[in-house]
Design brief:
By secondary structure, the chain is α+β, with helices and mostly antiparallel strands. The protein is built from 24 helices and 26 strands. It binds 2-(butylsulfanyl)adenosine (IVH).
Length: 671
């Protein structure tokens, strides 16, 4: 027999349910009830229990999203039903023709009911659930055979590993759903910044980034890309029936699958036109790329009657948006220097309106790209907004005359120092660690919200502090004198006093924020928190070897090496020591304090609580080292009764279990 007691098993189950629920709230409904730190805490607890009792690990556990080892190549999956593509309607006339054809073929004179949906510009996938368990995830491939990317699909947090049991819809014995995997624009921007900082080529747009991420041979890499999915159409379904597209969308939503909330049931084609116009107007507000609207005949019976032609259904059409492009001239090419010294060329443009905003500069990403596209000062270029966010130079459309010389960079534009270009890397890097630009960027990062959160220390001020040599490294912030500050541009006595007060306040910081603030390449907010939870102190982290670092969730060789390299560098070590003289590290924000009265005790909650939700109460108990169970038994230590308690309270009385009020519970936790 294995070592895990029934209680531990129940505890593990309970944590999984809780984590799955919070996952669903966060990733599918976009309505989190707990903070990221609290979520990480729960996951960390589950991981610890599973590490102690490996026999309890199941494939659908939320810790097992990244389970599989990297593969050499993807296996082929045959789709039970071919994955079709969509015919396009490029303008209103073509959209009208589509509707007329549908009515003609169906011999209907009245209106056709459509479902109008966003046309996502992502990567088509198929998810296969057998008896509620995710068994296969595949790409579209050629429509008949796709690639088996199950291990990667499992890392997408909005894809349930197990369907939710729902009242209205039974879990079908077989459910195939098709959907689109996307990379949200914000994540795309961040990913490209990180890639540039590492000297890697950026992705051209979110679609390519999503495709590149999903087709990674190492699922750990995929897991670090915050991919998302929208499910939009059925494959083979057994053991459940839907009669319309709208029912299908509603049905899979109750099973926990993510569907897009913007889909709309349209009683006629004119409602589809309205939807298209509204969405075209609002598309820039979305956090994902949409390149049109998909109109689908709602009734599955009518869909069947319409059938398909040349691999496209006759019952659906993609009504495309107009492309968002503009032409403008490059006035000048300049170079900016990042925190790690990476040089990024930027095109200063003649201002031009594109997709709702005026654009006057565009990143040229790296010097290889300038060369490849032969972009020079004075050229006229075609501009697009990649992911409708970032302006992006597609190509030169008109050469300047006379033509400028090809753009080159020999010295750091900020400090005039040497630059390095490593073999095989695209980035050029300023190697001077005291380069004012590098110092400026690292201070900006240090003061930002997710790090030391120093209010009032904005970009302009940081630039002045560095320029005036008042700050040369992080520790210098804590040596600033109000008189010196007050002498700076746009700084009065009052604002300098306020700033000093804010800097003072920042001295006390949690470990996760400190780790993030150091600016270790590849270590962002999330990884910093994992490290803080796992190591608990800076000394533990500093002395960890590669093997120990790799035990932390999501940390692969690349991040581990980066952390080791950071702490191996004498200058970083000395700078950190100087910083530590000015700050105190306080416990993590999540209430990780274990209470002696609560530790190891099993609680059952019943009735409505007043000062917190049930979920909050459960979390507090777990965080304090207690356990939560859903039914009262001989093993129950305490029943917490709110108002209108259920039969659990009767059972507690029968068994002589101690009954607590909400206030009792809180004082026990607070110790
Ligand atoms: S339904 C046969 N709905 O567009 C119809 N597809 O050009 C099956 N796409 O490969 C697709 N958004 O991956 C449908 N709301 C949506 C969509 C959508 C994007 C993709 C889909 C398909 C491609 C066809």
């Amino acid at each position: 027999m294995s070592g895990a007691s029934a209680e531990t098993r129940a505890q593990v189950e309970h944590l999984r349910d809780l984590i799955n629920r919070h996952n669903y709230l966060y990733y599918v409904l976009d309505a989190p009830e707990i903070t990221d730190a609290e979520y990480d805490e729960l996951l960390h607890r589950l991981e610890t229990l599973e590490r102690e009792h490996p026999e309890l690990v199941t494939p659908d556990s939320p810790t097992q999203r990244v389970g599989a080892a990297p593969s050499e190549k993807f296996a082929t999956v045959k789709h039970r039903l071919p994955m079709l593509s969509l015919a396009n309607a490029m303008n209103a006339d073509e959209m009208r023709e589509f509707d007329q054809r549908v009515r003609r073929m169906l011999k209907v004179s009245g209106d056709i009911e459509y479902v109008a949906e966003v046309k996502f510009d992502g990567l088509a996938v198929e998810l296969v659930y057998e008896n509620g368990m995710l068994v296969v995830g595949s790409t579209r491939g050629d429509g008949v055979n796709g690639e088996d990317v199950t291990a990667n699909i499992r890392t997408i947090k909005s894809v349930p590993l197990r369907l939710m049991a729902a009242r209205a819809v039974r879990v079908p014995s077989l459910l195939e759903v098709r959907g689109e995997v996307i990379l949200p624009r914000k994540a795309f921007v961040r990913l490209n910044e990180e890639r540039l900082a590492r000297g890697e080529a950026p992705f051209a747009n979110p679609r390519n980034a999503a495709a590149g991420s999903l087709r990674q041979l190492d699922p750990r890499v995929t897991s670090r890309r915050p991919l998302d999915v929208f499910c939009h159409s059925p494959g083979v379904i057994e053991g459940a029936g839907f009669s319309t597209q709208w029912d299908f969308l509603e049905g899979i939503k109750t099973l926990g699958l993510k569907v897009n909330p913007l889909s709309r049931l349209c009683p006629s084609v004119s409602a589809v036109f309205d939807y298209w116009a509204e969405l075209a107007e609002r598309r820039h507000e979305l956090d994902y790329d949409a390149d049109g609207v998909v109109a689908k005949v709602n009734s599955f019976e009518l869909q069947e009657r319409l059938g398909e032609v040349s691999r496209s259904p006759r019952w659906a059409v993609a009504y495309k948006f107009k492309a968002q492009q503009a032409h403008t001239k490059i006035r000048k090419i300049s170079v900016s220097v990042g925190r790690t010294g990476t040089l990024t060329p930027v095109a200063d443009l003649e201002p031009v309106r594109l997709a709702g905003v005026t654009i006057s500069s565009a990143s040229l990403h790296n010097f290889d790209e300038i060369q490849r596209k032969d972009i020079r000062e004075g050229d006229t270029i075609l501009l697009e907004r990649a992911g409708d966010v970032i302006p992006y130079v597609v190509r030169v459309t008109h050469k300047g005359s006379p033509r400028a010389k090809p753009f080159t960079v020999e010295h750091c534009p900020e400090c005039g120092g040497s630059i390095a270009h490593e073999e095989g890397e695209v980035a050029y890097v300023c190697i001077n660690v005291n380069c004012p630009a590098r110092v400026r960027e690292s201070i900006r990062h240090f003061a930002s919200k997710a790090c030391f959160d120093i209010e009032g220390l904005g970009d302009k001020l940081v630039a002045q502090l560095v320029e005036k040599k008042l700050v040369r490294e992080l520790a210098d912030l804590y040596l600033l004198k109000p008189e010196k500050l007050a002498a700076l541009e746009r700084m009065g006595e009052l604002s300098s006093r306020n700033l000093i007060a804010n800097i003072e306040r920042s001295r006390s910081v949690t470990l996760d924020r400190l780790i993030n603030a150091l600016g270790i390449p590849h270590v962002g907010e999330h990884t910093a928190r994992q490290l803080a939870l796992e190591f608990g102190s800076l000394d533990e982290l500093r002395s960890a070897d590669e093997g120990r670092l790799r035990q932390v969730r999501d940390i692969g060789p690349e991040i581990a090496h980066s952390i080791l390299a950071y702490f191996a560098e004498p200058r970083n070590r000395a700078g950190l020591e100087r910083l530590l003289e000015h700050i105190v590290i306080k416990p993590l924000e999540a209430p990780a304090k274990v209470s002696a009265a609560v530790r190891g005790k099993t609680f059952v909650l019943t009735g409505a609580l007043e000062r917190m939700t049930r979920a909050e109460a459960e979390r507090k108990i777990l965080a304090a080292g207690g356990k939560v169970s859903s039914s009262v038994s001989g093993k129950t230590d305490y029943v917490v009764a709110g108002s209108e308690p259920g039969s659990k309270l009767d059972r507690a009385r029968e068994l002589g279990v101690t009954v607590l009020s909400e206030a009792d519970l809180l004082s026990m936790i607070e110790g």
